[in-house]
């Protein structure tokens, strides 16, 4: 699946081309009903063709070309999607992108200038890496959960010091001063083991932070006292992005680790989003580097001052055209876009469902800049995902 930077690049590369964007919900659990996505999609394509009845012949032919390319892609998995969701972006020149995604999306088809990118926001958290580190006294195992799958990427082991001076553990040799007090062989071995463990944890922390990158999440499991030490050491490198999971240990299966990764990442993401949205709301109230509500967002996007855009699922569902335009405009100016949920969504919905952190406090020009006319958009036939 696409990362946010890849989705933004796809939008910018094809913004002036007529494109068929298709989203399919493959999450229906009942095998007898799994193929209902096909019925909804066929109706959506029929709606598009009816909508273009009075359009130029070349545009109708372009849509026909795109639907033929779509059918070739669908033939690869029809009748079932085999994944919670599936997305395709298609122009008359070919399939720009077609791939399953690990989250359900509403089934719909959109014909427009450029890709319809706003519905894809729901999948983007799955592109953020979650690094799971399970530690004990002698080893650290690192897993990465990303794009809906789990992989073990590395295993680090503490070195052991096997040789200790003979007088440190045996009876004193002849001539050795019996009054000299030193560390016993057992104590020396234990101290060396602790040093090696600490070195291993330090190395594992550096590696976990490197794999997570600037926005990824880090989960910690394993022997409690060792996991606590590791959590404390790595938290400084990734503040707000580290969480200890008590039920994970060296015996955990990859399926259990993947479930913990999804749940843990969602917990941290919701907390961080709530913090960010709260800051945006507070700054907006104080006239600072934050704005909330559609009107203020429109002004900020026009001035290209948006650093990070926040939207809720409710806003995306109830204001499809406006949300799509806002997300595209944010991508055009290199902004980060986040769909928020939980407490962050509740707060933001009370302020209009959309908000932004600004790069700078911009004043509008004396005369408003002319805005490019929006392309006409068809009615979308959508079906809400089951999850």
List keywords for this structure.
five-stranded mixed sheet, Nucleotidyltransferase, domain 5, four-stranded antiparallel sheet, globular, 3 domains, 60s Ribosomal Protein L30, Chain: A, Translation, Eukaryotic Peptide Chain Release Factor Subunit 1, Chain A, 10 helices, 387 residues, alpha+beta
Model description:
- This protein is an alpha+beta fold.
- It folds into three domains: 1-125, Translation, Eukaryotic Peptide Chain Release Factor Subunit 1, Chain A (2-Layer Sandwich), CATH 3.30.960; 128-168 and 182-252, eRF1 domain 2 (Nucleotidyltransferase, domain 5), CATH 3.30.420; 276-369, Ribosomal protein L30/S12 (60s Ribosomal Protein L30, Chain: A, 2-Layer Sandwich), CATH 3.30.1330.30.
- Helix content is 39%, strand content 21%.
- It is built from ten helices and 13 strands.
- The chain has a five-stranded mixed beta sheet with strand order 7-6-5-8-9. Strands 3-2-1-4 form a four-stranded antiparallel beta sheet. A four-stranded mixed beta sheet has the order 10-13-11-12, sandwiched between helices.
- A hairpin with a 3-residue loop joins strand 5 (130-135) and strand 6.
- Helix 7 packs parallel to helix 9 (320-332).
- The chain is globular and about 95 Å long.
- Residues 160-178 have low confidence and may be disordered.
């Amino acid at each position: 699946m696409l990362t946010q930077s890849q989705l933004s690049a796809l939008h910018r590369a094809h913004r002036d081309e007529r494109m068929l964007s298709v989203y399919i919900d493959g999450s229906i659990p009942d095998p007898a009903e799994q193929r209902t996505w096909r019925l909804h999609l066929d109706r959506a394509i029929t709606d598009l063709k009816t909508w273009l009845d009075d359009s130029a012949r070349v545009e109708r032919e372009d849509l026909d070309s795109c639907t033929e390319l779509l059918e070739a892609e669908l033939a690869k998995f029809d009748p079932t999607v085999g994944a919670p969701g599936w997305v395709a972006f298609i122009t008359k020149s070919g399939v720009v992108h077609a791939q399953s995604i690990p989250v359900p999306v509403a089934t719909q088809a959109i014909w427009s200038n450029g890709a319809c990118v706003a519905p894809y926001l729901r999948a983007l958290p799955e592109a953020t890496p979650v690094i799971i580190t399970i530690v004990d006294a002698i080893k650290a195992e690192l897993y990465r959960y990303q794009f809906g799958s789990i992989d073990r990427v590395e295993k680090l082991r503490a070195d052991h010091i096997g040789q200790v001076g003979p007088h440190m553990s045996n009876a004193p040799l002849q001539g050795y001063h019996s009054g000299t007090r030193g560390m016993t062989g057992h104590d020396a071995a234990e101290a060396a083991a602790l040093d090696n463990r600490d070195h291993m944890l330090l190395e594992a922390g550096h590696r976990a932070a490197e794999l997570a990158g600037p926005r990824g999440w880090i989960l910690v499991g394993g022997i409690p006292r060792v996991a606590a030490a590791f959590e404390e050491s790595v938290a400084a490198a990734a503040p707000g992005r580290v969480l200890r999971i008590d039920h994970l240990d060296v015996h955990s299966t990859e399926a259990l680790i993947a479930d913990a990764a999804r749940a843990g990442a969602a917990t941290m993401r919701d907390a961080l989003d709530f913090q960010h949205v709260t800051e945006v709301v507070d700054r907006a109230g104080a006239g600072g580097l934050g704005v909330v509500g559609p009107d203020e967002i429109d002004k900020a996007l026009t001035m290209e001052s948006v650093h990070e855009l926040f939207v809720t699922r409710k806003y995306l569902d109830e204001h499809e055209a406006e949300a799509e335009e806002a997300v595209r405009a944010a991508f055009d100016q290199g902004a980060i876009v986040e769909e928020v949920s939980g407490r962050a969504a509740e707060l933001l919905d009370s302020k209009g469902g959309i908000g932004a952190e600004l790069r700078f406090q911009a004043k509008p020009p004396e005369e408003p800049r002319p805005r490019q006319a929006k392309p006409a958009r068809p009615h979308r036939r959508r079906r809400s995902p089951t999850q």
